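User: Hi! I'm working on a homework problem where we have to compare a predicted structure to a textbook description. Could you give me the structure for the chain below?
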Amino acid sequence: MAAERGCPRCGQQLPWGQPDCPYCAGRFAWTLRRDTFLLLVGVLLIALFVVTGSTVKRYFELQKAFAEEWYSRGEQDLQAKRLVAALADFRTALTYSHNNPQYELRLAQALAQMGESPEARAEARTYLLNLLEREPGNGLVNLELARLAALDHDVGGALRYYHAAIYGAWGGHQVEQRRAARLELVQFLLDSGQKDAARAELIAMAPDLPADPQLQTRVADLLIRVHGCDDALKLFHRALLESPHSPAALAGAGECHYQQGNYAQAERYLTRAVQQDSGLTEAARLRDSARAVLEIDPFGRRLSNAERAHRAALNFQTATARLASCTAGASLAAAGSGQLQTLVGQVRDLEPRAQERYLSRDPDLLAQVMELVFAVELTTSRYCSPPQGQDVALLLLAQGSGGNRP
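Assistant: Happy to help. Predicted structure tokens:
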């Protein structure tokens, strides 16, 4: 009987007549089947990961597309002043793109435009404060908060946010955006009656203005409104260097000289302004008023003694008639009555000498006559009816304190 053989791999005895080990053959088949299974499972998992990633990516792309579509609709509705529709559009955009700062800002701006609704302003403020917490130096967000504070008549809050906007960060055109915010602050201060604060803001921005005649003229016009004619004139002159025939700059410079009592200069600038633009009715009125003052002023440098005397005598007659009309009118306050009666006595004493033949030879007498004329016009303007005609020109000449000299 043949000896049994052992398997060289597993050591088991090989059955008689079988060249291969049945034990190793089964184990090898199982090994092949397990490796194939694991390989298939790995391939399946990779495929699932790819499909899942693609699905998630597609989902977010759709979310983004929906958000952008609703945001675009909101922009169109906002531009067309359909505020209710715009609010719904922006809210829908935010449901697809949570915490999107651009969408939140536009929603807040749309809410702010519904200024008559305190609830809308409160909601807008909530969105803006959340944005400000994330980016405290954002110039646009601070500007929107300033506007809301202005609507609520919160002067302190408006000033704080306006200044934060002026010195804040802007995405582009930073200098221009800051300047625009300051001009908006100036307008708010003017509307609030704070002319001194408005003048301070305008003076602060004036030196850094670019060589833009239109912008320089705009700031100078605002300075006129806050009694800042000295600084306004500098800007008007800068504007006229760039644009010598600018009607607005010429009219503004003329108005400044007029307010300062420089009627000769005022008449020159205002005349040029009206020549450039005949539609400047206010400039034409001021020009005519300045001319009226110059025609009665006895202190003009190029006048002869005879013309000085003639003007002074006519002015004395005008003031005397004004005083007589005033004291003959209704009862006056005690203080006013006393001052006017004193002037009546002074006029009576000076009247015999207030004639051309005396005035032409005595400059001191002429000055005394005109001093009394000015006193009459100034006093009657306080206690009597508003002046008319030549009395208006005399009052302006008195208020000019000699500033009208050519």
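For your comparison, note the following. Residues 270 and 362 are 35 Å apart (CA to CA). The two ends are 152 Å apart (CA to CA). Good luck with the assignment!
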